[in-house]
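ERR on first pass: missing label on line 2. Operator R.T. fixed the label and resubmitted. Corrected input:
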Amino acid sequence: MQSVIKVTDLHKNYGELHAVDGIDFEINRGECFGLLGPNGAGKTTTVKMLTCALPLSGGDITVEGMSVTKNPRGIKYILGVCPQEINLDPDFSVLKNLIVYSRYFDIPYAEAKKRAEELINRFHLHDKLDRPIEDLSGGLKKRLLMARALINKPKVLILDEPTTGLDPQSRRQIWEEVRGMKNNGLTTLLTTHYIEEAELLCDRLVIIDAGKIVEHGTPKHLIEKHLGGKGNLEDVFLKLTGKHLRDE
Amino acid sequence: MNNACILKNISYRVWHMWRRNIDISLVTWKTNVIPPLIEPVLYILAFGIGLGAYVQKISFDGQYYSYLAFLAPGMIAVGVMFHATFDTMYGAFVRLRYQKTFDAVITTPLSAEDILVGEILSGATKGLFAGAAILLIISLFGLASYPSSLVVLPLSALAGLMFASFGLLFAAMAPYIDNLNLPIFLFINPMFLFSGTFFPLDGMPAWVRLAANLLPLTHLVNITRAATFNRLTPALLWDLLYILILTAAIAYVSIRKMKSRLIK
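pass 2 clean. output:
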């Protein structure tokens, strides 16, 4: 199987703090790969280095053979990034958000408009076409973020906690979309701390804690290995990362 | 990170960021377009006609002018300063801290330098627009000579780059939005009052003139006034040189500083 993303001995240090402390993994073409971990485990830091938004302290990441340190622009052209934080342009309408974002990828206006309209239909945003962002619910904002991440027809989609803070209906709708994209062969990296989400969507995953990988494999394999097939991925997660609270 | 590195990371994509910011201004155009047109009229009424009635003719470069005529070019320079500085100072701060716009754009093919140069360019555009709008108003009052006053347009664009860079630097240095009161209090307001905008510096004590000459606005006022009075002289090239050097220096420092805040 051909790997699209290759992460080798990745490090990120903030002074004494090792936010990411020697992570290795590969993501194969067409798979949905999960990056699981409790809050503060280093998921978003890893994603930021992968999206060329953060310099590496050590190691390397390549996307389609391009290194984040040598060719960040080349990588950024083929990535679709759906961030954890809502960073839509609040002064623009739904449609204008997509059009303005498409310019950053040098997509000509006619093509951008066509793609934006397709995405608006696909993500059920057509009723809100001309509405300002502040009128949208949390679920709609997340859907628009995902639509925005697809405007450049990415080869790799990065979903950083796509369903955090959503109601069950919106969450399910996002899951449907992710599954649909996976069926179309889009390579996806998903970070989450919802274990159910990972179990449902990910072909393979790694569990990270305190900047290190503590386990990797398919959801089924991990349940088999750690719980003898009895239980769910959440039990595996808690067994590996402990039950103490984070962010303290 | 050195100068060459910053230059290497700048591309035509700065215009994507510029256009985004201009598009935002067009969405909220009423609050962006009307103030630059109204403000100078208020100043001209209050200071030029109100205060001016009590002020004798003012001597400038061997000629005598009414107080209103003296004040008008100062208002152009002040307008450029306010609009360019505030655009990046508050705009960039809000985009960095509240709207997270830079976080969104940094994952697209734009580099941090593209984003920040785009910010400076859009701030400068606001400054140029303000300068042009005020020039138009004072021209309607018959207070600008042509064609020499046309120099005001490229000059406002250059000064716009300078003040937008200052604004970006202040935004990069402020931990909280309230901290932005400090550069207004310590930098913008003293310049507004003491850069030869409201009174000529010629009659002032030497130390006052020296202090005023350190302020960038003084040099902008010098050239702007000479242009609207049709009194452009080669000596003004020193003022221009000062503005050029300061613009390059502050643009560089502000981009570096803001980049270190954007990418940790």
